[in-house]
Amino acid sequence: MIDGATGQPDADNSGTAGDPTTLPHTDRDSKSGERIDLVVGQHAAALSAQLQEHRARLFPPTASKELRKFTSGEVADLLGVKDAYLRKLHIDGRGPDPEVRTAGRRYYSAAEIRELRVMLEEGAKTPGTYLPGRRDSDHCQVICVINFKGGSAKTTTSAHLAQKMALDGYRVLAVDLDPQASLSALHGFQPEFDLLDGGTLYDAIRYDDPVPIRDVIRPTYFDGLDIIPGNLDLMDFEHDTPAAIVRREENPFFTRIAAALSEVEADYDVVIIDCPPQLGFISMAALSAATAVLVTIHPQMLDVMSMCQFLLMTSNLLGVVAEAGGNMNYDWLRYLVTRYEPGDGPQNQMVGFMRSIFGDHVLNNTVLKSTAISDAGITKQTLYEVERAQFTRTTYERARESLDAVNSEIESLVQAAWGRPTGH
Questions:
Q1: If you compute the radius of gyration of the chain from its CA atoms, what whole number of angstroms results?
Q2: Considering 5, 101, 116, 393, which has the largest number of Cβ atoms within 10 A of its Cβ?
Q3: Could you tell me how far CA 226 lies from the centroid of its own chain?
Q4: 96 within 8 A of 116, measured Cβ to Cβ
């Protein structure tokens, strides 16, 4: 353990001459106990080893993370058709051949769901009914999910939104800009083992010898969803940028993410960026690249107070970026209430408070606090990955309905930005 400072220098322990770690002009000698940097390093190494062992148990080295198959009932809900219609398609030999299990139950993979979408779209009366992605005249939607304070379910929101949009037929790119890389972990990447030689967005936006962004995009086990994983390398952008500003870099920091994404924007309908819980250079670059912003907020007084400071800082800093030529025009900005407990009186008051101030900028739907979401996270999964049978039915369905409603509302905003307010 680390003992606190005594307030007085210890003359008996002041002989630190020759110690290269001694810092001048500090009260280092007034402290006793263990070296904090060494202790933290030991803890990090031990934790990393245990996490790797945990991953090896869940997903052996020879295996890769795979997505479960979906019941015909789930697929019918995703496609907006009747289960009986899917059964008829199967009997008639049209579309993919699903796996048939006990009692004739049919199960479809994510790739087979997309195959169904392509087939049904060919006969749809309204274009975009089954493939709702953008058309030639539509711009790629770049959604920044952001907040200043940790614990607002930012990564949970990003992961569920990206996966649901992929299941709904969109071509999605998820970008993990958080050095903690939780979004990456949810999709099967452990940064200290899988990204030893780089492979984050930093490689594509760095000032010296950037690589093409395609080099850092990786497919996931979700059909229609790719990812750019994150790790601690992203912090280098924060360290490099001040020097780049001094030397008046030709392509300033706030243009670099937008420029990188422009190389692949034709490949995707939506890009979802999970920003770090801080307003640094990389967050401002992401906001400059965004066409939409989603601010997650836990309805507690301290969280709302923190968000107030975040909004003030964001306004001031992005104002400077705008004056320097950055694009600050968005299709939409919304606040999403997360980890919401409807039976909690103070939380209801905070939600009402926010709606009275922000009006329609607060999404109508909320993400409920649920043990189903947190329990799924223990095995690095989302509610779209886990089997319904692993949870109490009402617990799972309540959480799933909450997430589906939020994601559907966000998809409607995306469609509206493309000039299709009715959803297609």
A1: 24
A2: 116
A3: 12
A4: yes
Looking at this protein, which amino acid is placed at residue 406? V
Question: Which residue in 332, 289, 339, 295 sits closest to 313, CA to CA?
Answer: 295
Distance from C-alpha of 347 to C-alpha of 78, rounded to nearest angstrom:
32
Cβ neighbour number for residue 82 with a 10 Å cutoff: 11
The residues, ordered by sequence, that sit 6+ positions from 385 with a Cβ below 8 Å of its Cβ are 67, 68, 163, 376
Phi and psi at 262, nearest 5°, equal -65, -20
The per-residue pLDDT for range 40-94, each reduced to its tens digit, is 667 767 766 776 676 666 555 445 678 999 999 999 999 999 999 999 999 999 9
The model carries a pTM of: 0.84
User: pLDDT tens digits for 177-228?
Assistant: 999 899 998 998 877 677 777 899 999 999 999 999 999 999 999 999 999 9
- b/e burial code for range 375-412 (CB count within 10 A of at least 16 → b): bbbeebbbbbbbeeeebeeeebeebbebbbbbbeebbe
pLDDT of amino acid 15:
43
The list of the chain residues with pLDDT below 50 reads 1-29, 61-62, 423-424
